Amino acid sequence: MSWILTLLFVGAVVAxxxxxxxxxxxREQHVKDWDEIQIDRLRKSGSDPFRPxxxxxxxxxxxxxxxxxxxxxxxxxxYRVDLRLAPANPGAQPYSLHAxxxxxxxxxxxxxLSAQFKEIARxxxxxxxxxxxxxxxxxxxxx
Length: 143
Known about the structure:
alpha+beta; four-stranded antiparallel β-sheet; elongated
């Protein structure tokens, strides 16, 4: 009978150990967000992370007035901004705002900018639709 209890005890310890290490491994796994996925995609396509990229930011705005306010704010920060009526989106967000700025891409920097754009869009009643950038060729062909 004691060997059965010993076997059950060992089995329980092994099961608890597997659960513990499984949970620990899941915590260590890194979940990539949009910013990191975009930067990885650019780097894998041969883009030079140390050169500025023309980064396009997109927002949907509820009104022309809200869009013009955001446009003014972003232009003061050095962005080139285009605000247009988007006939394909006649619902609650009928205006499309597109902002461009040359930036060096880093995951922390783009996460911070995405958070800022989300907050700007939220406070103006709009939505932030993300960013994109084209690859910038490396100047040193050995990398």
